[in-house]
């Protein structure tokens, strides 16, 4: 459960100060499938970085499952991020010369999961995204859509409750984008909260709720199907 109230975020100081988010209020219940849509520069990535506990903010409150994120020190914040959140980016961010299995295991090297359990979790995740047969290939041997599936497996392997995706289809063609959105939809039906940042109408239309950001403000927040 995400609860954001009166959130403000700016970059720079003095004359160069730029207000990237201004008074953002947002509730995202568990099990949501949400698109955050808006033009380039609207503040989508800034919001996603804050929701992902990757960036701080100067004013307002952010509760993640009743934890007040603002009060957490770096170590606790990293732990919360590790436990609850998975990230998917536009450019996949895989290590291309490493195997699919290694890539899917990667974030778990930063916690204390035993190797055997890491492998098992990564394999389960690869199965979920339909890549069980490809685990020994290197990432560079895969197509764009398959690479994004590996990135999704990597994001869900640690069993997060929320998946944050920043333009996950930005580097993919229309057909492949649709398949990736179908995969997100499947994961959502299995209980995962999925938040997708996109500038693309079709991609946003695959989600159950659409939040539109413009100039750092939410200008619209509605269930899909109601425009
Ligand atoms: P979006 O993801 O919607 O394209 P961003 O959240 O990346 O928008 O950026 C919102 C605004 O904040 C843009 O005008 C961008 O140039 C500015 N911005 C983002 N990051 C920084 C930064 N680190 N320093 C200064 N300005 C930034
Ligand atoms: P995304 O592809 O996620 O929208 P961007 O390309 O907007 O990311 O930004 C990439 C990085 O550059 C981010 O770390 C962001 O904070 C930073 N950034 C974006 N806009 C600016 C800016 N105007 N000045 C300084 N840094 C920026």
From TrEMBL:
<dbReference type="GO" id="GO:0005524">
    <property type="term" value="F:ATP binding"/>
</dbReference>
<keyword id="KW-0547">Nucleotide-binding</keyword>
<dbReference type="InterPro" id="IPR017871">
    <property type="entry name" value="ABC_transporter-like_CS"/>
</dbReference>
<dbReference type="InterPro" id="IPR015854">
    <property type="entry name" value="ABC_transpr_LolD-like"/>
</dbReference>
<dbReference type="GO" id="GO:0098796">
    <property type="term" value="C:membrane protein complex"/>
</dbReference>
<dbReference type="InterPro" id="IPR027417">
    <property type="entry name" value="P-loop_NTPase"/>
</dbReference>
<dbReference type="GO" id="GO:0016887">
    <property type="term" value="F:ATP hydrolysis activity"/>
</dbReference>
<dbReference type="Pfam" id="PF00005">
    <property type="entry name" value="ABC_tran"/>
</dbReference>
<keyword id="KW-0067">ATP-binding</keyword>
<dbReference type="InterPro" id="IPR017911">
    <property type="entry name" value="MacB-like_ATP-bd"/>
</dbReference>
<feature type="domain" description="ABC transporter">
    <location>
        <begin position="2"/>
        <end position="226"/>
    </location>
</feature>
<keyword id="KW-0813">Transport</keyword>
<dbReference type="GO" id="GO:0022857">
    <property type="term" value="F:transmembrane transporter activity"/>
</dbReference>
<dbReference type="InterPro" id="IPR003439">
    <property type="entry name" value="ABC_transporter-like_ATP-bd"/>
</dbReference>
<dbReference type="GO" id="GO:0005886">
    <property type="term" value="C:plasma membrane"/>
</dbReference>
<protein>
    <submittedName>
        <fullName>ABC transporter ATP-binding protein</fullName>
        <ecNumber>3.6.3.-</ecNumber>
    </submittedName>
</protein>
<dbReference type="InterPro" id="IPR003593">
    <property type="entry name" value="AAA+_ATPase"/>
</dbReference>
<keyword id="KW-0378">Hydrolase</keyword>
């Amino acid at each position: 459960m995400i609860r954001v109230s009166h959130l403000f975020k700016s970059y720079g100081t003095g004359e160069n100060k730029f207000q990237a988010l201004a008074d953002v209020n947002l509730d995202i219940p568990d099990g949501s499938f949400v698109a955050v849509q808006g033009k380039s520069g609207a503040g989508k990535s800034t919001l996603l970085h804050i929701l992902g506990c990757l960036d701080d903010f100067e004013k307002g409150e952010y509760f993640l499952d009743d934890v007040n994120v603002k009060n957490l020190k770096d170590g606790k914040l990293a732990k919360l991020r590790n436990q609850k959140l998975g990230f998917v980016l536009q450019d996949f961010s895989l290590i291309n010369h490493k195997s699919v299995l290694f890539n899917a295991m990667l974030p778990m090297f930063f916690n204390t999961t035993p190797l055997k359990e890491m492998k098992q979790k990564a394999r389960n995740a690869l199965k979920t995204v339909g890549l069980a047969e490809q685990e020994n290939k290197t990432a560079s041997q895969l197509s764009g859509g398959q690479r994004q599936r590996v990135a999704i497996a990597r994001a869900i392997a640690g069993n997060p409750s929320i998946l944050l995706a920043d333009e996950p289809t930005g580097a993919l063609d229309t057909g492949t984008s649709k398949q990736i959105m179908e995969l997100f939809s499947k994961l959502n039906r299995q209980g995962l909260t999925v938040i997708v940042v996109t500038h693309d109408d079709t991609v946003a239309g695959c989600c159950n709720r659409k939040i539109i950001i413009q100039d750092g403000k939410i200008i619209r927040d509605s269930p899909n199907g109601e425009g």
